[in-house]
Amino acid sequence: CERRTPLGDEHAVRRSFGGKRKVHRTTMRRAAAMRLGTHKRMAQTCRAQGEGSTQRRTIRKTLTRKLSGDDFRHPLDQQNTALLRALPGFSTLARAAVGSVAEQAMLLENVGSCVRVGETQLPKMHRMHTEAADILGLDPAPELYVRQDPQPNAYTLAVSGRTPFVVIHTALLELLDMNELQAVLAHEMGHLKCDHGVWLSMALAMADGATRMPGLGGLLATPMQDGLLRWLRAAELTCDRAALLVVQDPKVVVSALMKLAGGSPSIANELNVDAFLEQARSYDQATRSPMGWYLRNAQTRQLSHPLPVLRAREIDRWASSPEYRALVGIAE
Q1: Is 278 annotated in the active site?
Q2: Catalytic residue among 10, 103, 188, 236, which?
Q3: pTM here?
């Protein structure tokens, strides 16, 4: 793991949908020239997506019961979270140590450098955002900010605190349609719903402590880091499920993942979700051999996010599961 910043490891409080997947500090450097025309481009993008060929779908946007994080938590996420919850008092300590300082600093950064979405600022996006929060049972909805950035990404302060928030980059508005954008927002809210920031902070503290233990600490650090990265990847799978619970169409979630893997505004209309799912199946076939299994593990071991094709396969499978169908009220 990387050394901590004065505010604590930023990766412990920022969880991104599709950004840089290697574990590293998430300090962002933004060119001043990219800030020009923010309002104009956001308004044009939202208007084009609202009036163009991709319309908001009219489907039932309710669940059969009040939702808890454990209702959609991925099994691997459940296992690792249960281990962390078993540590008495550490959750409270993690919230106090990490949440208050980092949260306040990042809140001030958002207010000073971003556009805050609300009823009178990008109202269509605001309604979409609050709808997702209502479905996931987040009350109040986290604040939503739009940041000028050419990297398509989104992140949240995933510690349940006084002012949770979600930040999306302007590049996402140019790449995704409004349904896909809502899936991204719901993904980020899934981190809040499941308290991922708290458990991640605790786990990073444990890993940092191991590296400080003479002799034994060095031996424990690498296995512990590998375990943390496995947990991070499982947490992303959990939040993809949150996205599906909100948009209630697996092709929307898969389409967002596909565009983040290799999309651009100029080719977005030509991308094929079914072909991407077939690509995921071909990846599974290619990694069934012992050598393929080894190479797959080597490829993903140091990633904080699962590979896009694996995320697409997982969400496509869960969409057919009895658990998902029961939550959204689909008859067997």
Answers
A1: no
A2: 188
A3: 0.76
